[in-house]
Design goal:
Two copies of one chain form a homodimer.
Chain A (H helix, E strand, L loop, with lengths): L1 H14 L6 H12 L4 E2 H7 L6 H13 L3 E5 L5 E5 L17 E5 L5 E4 L14 E12 L1 H7 L4
Parallel strand pairs in A: 4-6
Antiparallel strand pairs in A: 1-3, 2-3, 4-5
The structure holds a DNA duplex (30 and 30 nucleotides).
DNA sequence: TTGATCCTGCAACACAGTTGCAAAACTATT
DNA sequence: AATAGTTTTGCAACTGTGTTGCAGGATCAA
């Protein structure tokens, strides 16, 4: 049901003391409908209404500060934003593992957050102090596999 | 000895059928003196002579195609270029593991290639086809550790 | 020396991202 | 409902990164 999702978006924002304005509902609504990370340009293209570029940037900044989304830098340097749930991480907004793997599909180019993958321990040179190990991966996503039936 | 290094730079370029022009020798010379990845702006700042921005971009493009350097995208989205040896990978130009870990020092911001670290096998959801697993890390580099004597 | 090829610098452009400011929208209070 | 105060938005302008086309210069091979 469309109405109930709108309500949920509204509630999510209110809970975080974010005024549920049009842009914010539109952008968060888009994130809720999509399982992968979105660039600023993607968002501009896919939301219903036209908003100023700056307004969208500020919306994303605000969502990031509130922990609704996080930045993902593509292997080509493109900045994308991934929502913390509804799809990517199979959990609700604001629940996700902080350090998780980002998977980029080489067919569709989409980036998925994969919180289920464990970050392994690795051997590391002793003269460097390792703090965080970050994983990213390339391959073919679920959707493209079922569509194209690629087996390589 | 400075002269002998200049000769080596010259030879490296000639071997690859790259005309050893001023920019090219300057830029490759810089890479040979440095152990970490450099951004376009870094290079512009640190080479002796002033060259046009575009010329430097084209030089980097050429070096990349010839396999002398490779692009590294910083976690903040900044594009850097790492030479395939002389420092970063402990091997000579053009010899390096294609898929290696990039280490970013949180103190100095420099990025190091660490070819000695093995890429582990991981458990991955069966409905996604994993092709390449990429590792990147954050921590404190050798130099900053010895300088600051940080122990966390 | 001549032509062909390669390299460089310049102008111009596209795109991402940021900042300051003023108008508009909203909130709370009376 | 009118007011004052705070937030939010849109606009203009600007910075930084990266790209393209073109013309002049340097280099190479004959």
């Amino acid at each position: 049901m469309k109405g109930s999702n709108d309500k949920r978006i509204d509630g999510t924002l209110r809970d975080l003391k974010i005024r549920p304005t049009k842009v914010r509902k539109d952008v968060l609504g888009l994130f809720s409908r999509v399982e992968f990370a979105l660039s600023h340009a993607d968002i501009e293209r896919h939301i219903k209404q036209k908003f100023d570029r700056v307004t969208i940037y500020r919306t994303l900044e605000m969502f990031e500060k509130s922990g609704l989304i996080h930045k993902v830098i593509d292997d080509t340097g493109v900045t994308k934003y991934a929502s913390h749930g509804y799809g990517g991480c199979d959990v609700h907004f604001r629940h996700h593992k902080t350090n998780h793997l980002h998977f980029k599909c080489t067919e569709c180019g989409n980036i998925y957050c994969m919180c289920s993958v464990e970050v392994p321990k690795i051997d590391f040179p002793i003269d460097f102090e390792l703090k965080i190990l970050k994983l990213s991966a390339e391959g073919i996503c679920k959707k493209c596999l079922s569509k194209g039936n690629k087996t390589t």
